[in-house]
Each structure stands twice: as C-alpha cells, then as structure tokens.
C-alpha cells in the first residue's frame, strides 16, 4: 500500500497545458519514459523574433510552461510521473530548444553591460542596482494595494518562495574557496540554520496560510502567467548550466542587494491591511538577513568568484542585470493589470478594484506592457 505524499512539499500535480507543445509534453509525462514525437523540439526552435506574429519567448505561455515542466523534473518532479523522465534524451533536446531563444531574449532584455576588471565587480553590481528604475510595486503594496491584490502578489511569488534558495544552491558543488564559503553562509540563513520552522520557505508558507491561500507546493502554477514562470525559469536556467555559474551568483547578488527595502514595504503593507505578526514575519526576517547578505553577496560571493575565475566577471554582471530586468517585467505586469482594474492572475482571478494608473509610465519601456 502506497503512502500519500505530503502535498505541502511536493511533488505537484501536472498542470493544465497552455498550448500544443506543453500539451504534448504533459500527455507524454503521464506515460512511462519514451522518445517524444519527432519534430516537437523543432516546433519551438523557430518562429521566434521581434516582429509581428513572432512569439516573445519571455511571455509566450506555451514555451514558458514547457520549460517549467522540464525544469521541475530536476526539483521535486511531478506526481505520478516516472522519475526516469529527468534525463530522457528527447526531453532534454526539447528543453534545449526552448532554452536557446529564452536565453537570447533575456540577454537582449538585459542589454549591453560595461566591461569591468574583477576588482571592480562589487562596485559594478552596486551601480546596476542603483540605476534600476523598476516599477513601484513595493510602494504600491505598502501604501494602497487591496488585500485581494496583496494575495495575488503572494500567489505569484509562491512559485519561488516555496522553494526559496534551492535553485541558487546548485552553485555549491561548482564553487570552491571563498565564493563557496560565502554562498554557504547566505544559504544557511535561507534554510533557517537547520531549523525547519525558520526556513524562509516555511515562513512564507505561514504568510500564505494567514492570507487564506493554498500552501501546497506549486499549488498555484495554473494561475500564474508566463512572465511569472519566466522569472522562475531564469534561475533554473542559470542553476542547471555550469557555464552560467557566474550568472547564477550575479542573480543571487541582485536579489540580496535589492531585498531589504522592498521587504520592509511588503511587511508594512500587510500591517496596514491588519495582518498579524505571524503573517509578516517572513518579510521582517528578510529585512534583517538581507541587509547582511547584501555585502556578503557583492564582495565575498561574487568578488570571491571573480578573483579565482576572472573570466566570469561579465557573466556575474549579466546575471544581476537579467534578474533586475525580468523582475521589472513582472512588476509592470502586476501594476498594469491592477491599473486596468483586472486581475494579474490567469483563469479569471478576482480583484476588488484598481490601484490606479501607477504603471502607465512603464508601458513604453517593457515588453510585458506592450
């Protein structure tokens, strides 16, 4: 007799397909491992570009769900799916066909970056963060978002926060020396220093519960749009490719260096809405922890990496710029949706009113608002 898996910790059920390729993949994953249909990878390898009629790899629902389906096999897998699918050659070929245009689109979005010497990487990271002109999502959630809109935000972020730190931990066996030690120091805090109830993923689960949301792992996958999947798929792309280890550390540094003030605002937003301290603890924890992590990430983690591998300086900056750029798309999507009086979620999720036209000035700058 089989024992049911605790749904809080995965694996999740296969999601609803969003197009022909994700549909074919979901159907295949329900069966024992086998070669995927000939031409399935090719169906996504072409027809990508910037002109009319060409799907944007960053916001195409079918592509992003296909990539998420492939990547999740390296995390907790899918309920009822044979674990041998993880390394099935034709599935890896499909994944690669989706990854190539995705990575190219992210590089275009990140834009040209300065060439810096290894010693200049921490300062260059700080300059990238200081120059980031992101839509005011944190201020909106702090000052005027409704409870329904805050619940939407938490629903989006649940895909990352319920496995927080896991994708960045893929860097550990690929590092040595000071960078490895710095990453372990950061990740120990993320994982609650060995206490389950202090793990950031568990603190976020409490926040979700206080907001009346389903706290099961990946429970809201069907409700979040492609741009949310892209934010998560980017970290998996960096984490699963050794050649992108520098980008992975730059991505983590950007997250740590831009965390304290937004999380303070998120926590104060929940206080304004009358939530209790248990609901807010996740955000308060990040205000304190990430103020310390910011310096470790820039100087010890990324600085330590490029001191031993100077050729990766450019990759570190790319990873940071990519993190900031995709988060801008995500923030613009939420604010544009709320400004229009609609939900930022899929499947007709409800909202109790617009925040106002707070994202209007970002419409011309981000593809998500185009």
Automatic annotation (TrEMBL):
What SMART domains does UniProt report for this protein, alphabetically? Haem_oxygenase_2 (SM01236)
Q: Which Pfam families match?
A: Haem_oxygenas_2
Oxidoreductase: present as a keyword of the record?
yes
**Alphabetized UniProt keyword annotations:** Oxidoreductase
Single Gene Ontology MF annotation: oxidoreductase activity
Q: Which InterPro entries match?
A: Haem_Oase-like_multi-hlx, PqqC-like
- Does the keyword field hold Oxidoreductase? yes
* PANTHER family according to UniProt: 4-AMINOBENZOATE SYNTHASE, PQQC-LIKE PROTEIN
- Recorded protein name is Iron-containing redox enzyme family protein
The taxonomy runs: Bacteria, Bacillati, Actinomycetota, Actinomycetes, Micromonosporales
């Amino acid at each position: 007799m089989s024992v049911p898996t605790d749904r809080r910790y995965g694996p999740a059920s296969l999601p609803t397909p969003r197009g022909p390729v994700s549909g074919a993949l979901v159907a295949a994953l329900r069966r024992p491992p086998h070669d995927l249909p000939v031409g399935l990878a090719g169906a996504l390898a072409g027809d990508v570009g910037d002109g009319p009629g060409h799907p944007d790899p960053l916001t195409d629902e079918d592509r992003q769900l296909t990539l998420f389906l492939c990547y999740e096999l390296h995390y907790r897998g899918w309920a009822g799916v044979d674990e041998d699918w993880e390394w099935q050659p034709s599935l890896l070929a499909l994944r690669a066909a989706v990854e190539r245009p995705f990575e190219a689109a992210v590089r275009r979005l990140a834009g040209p970056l300065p060439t810096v010497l290894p010693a200049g990487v921490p300062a260059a990271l700080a300059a990238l963060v200081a120059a980031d002109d992101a839509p005011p999502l944190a201020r909106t959630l702090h000052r005027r978002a409704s409870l329904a809109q805050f619940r939407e935000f938490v629903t989006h972020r649940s895909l990352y926060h319920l496995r927080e730190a896991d994708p960045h931990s893929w860097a550990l066996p690929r590092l040595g020396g000071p960078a490895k030690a710095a990453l372990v120091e950061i990740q120990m805090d993320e994982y609650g220093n060995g206490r389950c109830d202090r793990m950031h993923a568990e603190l976020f689960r409490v926040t979700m519960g206080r907001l009346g949301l389903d706290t099961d792992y990946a429970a809201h996958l069907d409700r979040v749009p492609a741009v949310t999947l892209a934010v998560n798929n980017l970290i998996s792309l960096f984490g699963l490719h050794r050649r992108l280890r520098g980008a992975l550390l730059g991505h983590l540094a950007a997250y740590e260096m831009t965390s304290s003030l937004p999380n303070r605002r998120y926590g104060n937003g929940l206080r304004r809405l009358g939530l209790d301290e248990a609901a807010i603890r996740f955000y308060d924890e990040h205000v304190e922890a990430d103020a310390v992590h910011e310096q470790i990430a820039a100087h010890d983690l990324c600085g330590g990496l490029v001191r031993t591998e100077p050729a990766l300086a450019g990759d570190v900056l790319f990873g940071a710029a990519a993190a900031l750029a995709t988060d801008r798309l995500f923030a613009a999507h939420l604010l544009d949706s709320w400004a229009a009086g609609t939900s930022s979620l899929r499947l007709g999720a409800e909202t109790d009113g617009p925040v106002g036209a707070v994202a209007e000035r970002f419409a011309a700058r981000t593809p998500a608002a185009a």
